[in-house]
Amino acid sequence: MHKAAQEVHAPEASVWRALGDVSPLCLAVLPWGILCGSLGLQMGFSALQTQAMSLLVFAGAVQLSGTMMVGNAAGLPAVLGSTLVISARHLLYGAHFRQYITPLPLKWRLGLGFLLTDEMYALSTAHTSKQGRFSKHYALYTGAAFYVGWNLATLAGILAGSQLKALEAIGLDFAIAATFIALTVPSIKTRPVLLCALASGVSMLLFTYYHIPNALIIATGVGMVAGLMAESLPTRRAST
Question: Is the CB of residue 167 less than 8 Å from the CB of residue 44?
Answer without folding.
Answer: no
